[in-house]
Design brief:
Length: about 150
């Protein structure tokens, strides 16, 4: 199935990367994400996203949802997925919501490719850049096939 190609490419890249991985210092433990202030901030962000996506749907219809999906995908896919699921439950056509999520995934992958190329070491840029470029290209092919 063509939509599984990006996941398969990512899986192969992880396997190759882990094969050559070297032991290093243990990373510090993550901060507790269940603290009250973090939860309040996330709830606020999700509500702002929901209102923004609603406004885009009202003003521009399906094209507005796809555009807002691409913009939201530049930073985060969780809020986008939640908002599109709610929109689909409230009557937005599922294919339109799916296209918005796909636009977000493409935008998110493009940002990650840019970060890998701009900030990575030479070996990281080669591996991550090549893998992300192929994944991004496969996402665009899937988008074209499904559209």
């Amino acid at each position: 199935m063509p939509s599984s190609a990006p996941a398969a490419i990512g899986g192969v890249a992880v396997a190759i990367g882990m094969r050559g991985a070297r032991g290093g210092p243990e990373p510090p433990p993550p901060a507790n994400p269940l603290q009250l202030w973090s939860a309040v901030q996330m709830a606020i962000v999700f509500q702002v996203v929901l209102y923004g996506v609603f406004a885009m749907r009202e003003w521009f219809g399906g094209a507005g949802l796809v555009a807002s999906g691409a913009v939201l995908g530049l930073t985060d896919l969780d809020a986008l997925t939640l908002s599109m699921a709610r929109m689909a439950a409230e009557g937005t056509a599922a294919p339109v919501a799916a296209r918005a999520i796909a636009a977000g995934i493409v935008a998110n992958s493009a940002v990650k490719l840019g970060i890998a190329l701009a900030l990575g070491s030479a070996s990281f840029r080669r591996l991550a850049g090549a893998v992300m470029a192929v994944m991004l290209a496969s996402l665009l092919v899937v988008w074209a096939v499904l559209s």
